Amino acid sequence: MAALLCLAWIPAQAQTTYRWIDRDGRVVVSDTPPPANARSVESRATTTGSAPLPLDVQLASRNFPVVLYTAADCGQPCDDARALLAGRRVPFSEKAVRSDEDFRALKAATGDSFVPTLTVGKEVLKGLAASDWNNLLDLAGYPRSSP
Fold first, then answer.
1. How many angstroms separate the CA atoms of 93 and 21, rounded?
2. For labeling, which of 55, 57, 70, 113 is most exposed (least CB within 10 Å)?
């Protein structure tokens, strides 16, 4: 019984899954980061060993999916953006802008090429303004505190 209780206290482990297009045009999905020449890179943080998401988070995620656009040279603002989403335990996908094609896709999706950019459903917020991001996440139904 004590061993089972100890196992219950083991924290959930986060895993990142990457999806990209390789130089031959094939779509690759892996848990290892893509090579530098990869195009259309997306990453999604998942948690293994944890309970299913609460119903309110599931509904918000289905109705208002969250996408974070970042770039390698973004630095602290992108790190802070990830931390804000992780702190609220908001499920999100991250699209790293690494190529001209990624740049064009970002501009088409958001109307600009600024990172970090957050989309919640069809709403777009450029630049990290924590109060604005939290307000939009609240309106979309994501809980303010982590479950």
1. 16
2. 55
